[in-house]
Design goal:
- This protein has 318 residues and is α+β, with helices and mostly antiparallel strands.
- It has a domain at 25-79 and 134-275 and 296-318.
- The chain is built from 6 helices and 15 strands.
- The strands form 4 sheets. It has a 7-stranded mixed β-sheet with strand order 5-15-12-6-9-8-7, sandwiched between helices. Strands 1-13-14-4 form a 4-stranded mixed β-sheet.
C-alpha cells in the first residue's frame, strides 16, 4: 500500500519560500541642519569672506590735552565649499530580467542614496564644531572653558557639567535663550540612572525620569539647567585618548552645547548644489545607473557659542 507523504513526494512541496518584502534597516531622526546658518548670498566661487570688527577702546582723558584715536581690531572670516559627495549604484539588464524583486529594489535606490547623503551631512555638521576647536585644550574664552571632560565617575557627565557649559556661554556674552545640548545616548543613560536623582522625588525638575525615561524620539522630556537635551548617534567620537586639564577621556564622544538663537548659531554653511539625482541607461554595459550628488561647505562660525564636553561611552555595561 502506498500514499503521498513528504518523504516520497518531494517535488510537490517547497522548503523555502521567498517573500517580495525587502527587509530594511531602522532609520533614525536627524536634526543638525536646523542649527546651521545657511548662506544664501553665495552665487559663485568657492570661498565666502565675511569681514569682522572688534570692540572700541576707552581711554582716560586729561583736560586740555589732545584726544587719542584708536582703531578697532578687524579680521576676515572665510568659509570654503569643500564637500562634493556622491552615492551611486546600478542594476544590470540580466538581474532585472531574472529577479522577482527587481522593481522593489530599484524603487529603493534614490531614497536610500538621499538618506545616505543626509546622514553624511548630519555627521559632518556635528563634527565641524569639535574639529574647529583645539584638541587637548580647554579653549578658554573670557575665563570660560569651552572644551572639557565630563566630571562624573569614569568621565561620565553630571548636572554640574551643564551648569559649567552655561557659565562658559555667559562669560562669552552668548544669549541665554534656546539653549540646546546634543548628547550621546550614553549621556542620557548616565543622567537617568544617577542614584541621587532616583532617590529624590521632591525635585519637580527631575520627577518622572525613572518612570518614563528621559527622551522621547530625539528630545528629552525635560531640561537641565535650562538646556533642552537631544540625543544623536552621529556625534564625533575621538579615535585617540584626549587629556584636558589633567583629565583623560578614552575615545570620548563630543557632546555639543550651544544657543540656537536666530543669528547666533555656532555653525555656518553653504549649499552650492542641493541633492541632485541623475540616471541613465548604459548601453555598453547593459545596465541602468543611478547617482545622487551634493556639494556644500561647513565651518565653525562662532566658537564662543559652543561648548564641547567629552564623555566616555563605555560605562553603560560595567
Amino acid at each position: 500500500m502506498s500514499g503521498f507523504t513528504t518523504d516520497t513526494v518531494t517535488h510537490l512541496t517547497r522548503s523555502n519560500l521567498w517573500t517580495t518584502q525587502l527587509k530594511e534597516l531602522f532609520d533614525d531622526e536627524r536634526m543638525a541642519m536646523r542649527y546651521v546658518n545657511w548662506i544664501d548670498s553665495f552665487p559663485d566661487g568657492d570661498t565666502w569672506n565675511q569681514p569682522s570688527i572688534g570692540r572700541a577702546e576707552v581711554l582716560d582723558y586729561e583736560e586740555d590735552q589732545p584726544l587719542k584715536y584708536t582703531a578697532m581690531d578687524t579680521g576676515n572670516f572665510t568659509m570654503t565649499i569643500t564637500e562634493y559627495v556622491q552615492s551611486g549604484t546600478y542594476i544590470t539588464n540580466k538581474l532585472k530580467q531574472d529577479s522577482y524583486v527587481a522593481d522593489q529594489l530599484i524603487a529603493k535606490f534614490v531614497p536610500e542614496q538621499n538618506r545616505a547623503i543626509m546622514v553624511d551631512l548630519e555627521t559632518k555638521i556635528l563634527a565641524v564644531g569639535p574639529d574647529g576647536q583645539t584638541s587637548a585644550n580647554s579653549n578658554t574664552i573670557n575665563g570660560g572653558k569651552h572644551r572639557f571632560v565630563g566630571s562624573g565617575t569614569n568621565e561620565t557627565i553630571t548636572p554640574e557639567d551643564f551648569a559649567k557649559a552655561r557659565y562658559a556661554l555667559q562669560a562669552a556674552n552668548v544669549p541665554m535663550t534656546n539653549l540646546v545640548a546634543i548628547v550621546d545616548p550614553s549621556v542620557e543613560y548616565a543622567l537617568s540612572t544617577m542614584t541621587n536623582l532616583v532617590n529624590v522625588s521632591f525635585n519637580p525638575t527631575w520627577e518622572g525620569i525613572v518612570r518614563n525615561g528621559m527622551s522621547s524620539g530625539t528630545r528629552f522630556l525635560m531640561s537641565v539647567y535650562g538646556w533642552d537635551i537631544y540625543t544623536s548617534h552621529y556625534l564625533k567620537v575621538n579615535t585617540t585618548t584626549e587629556a584636558i586639564d589633567g583629565v583623560t577621556a578614552t575615545l570620548g564622544v563630543n557632546n555639543l552645547f550651544f544657543s540656537a538663537t536666530s543669528g547666533m548659531l555656532p555653525f555656518i554653511g553653504a549649499i552650492r548644489q542641493p541633492v541632485k539625482v541623475d540616471s541613465k541607461y548604459n548601453m555598453d554595459y547593459q545596465r541602468d545607473e543611478y547617482a545622487t550628488t551634493m556639494r556644500y561647505g561647513l565651518k565653525l562660525h562662532r566658537p564662543e557659542n559652543l561648548v564641547v564636553i567629552l564623555t566616555d561611552t563605555d560605562q553603560v555595561y560595567v
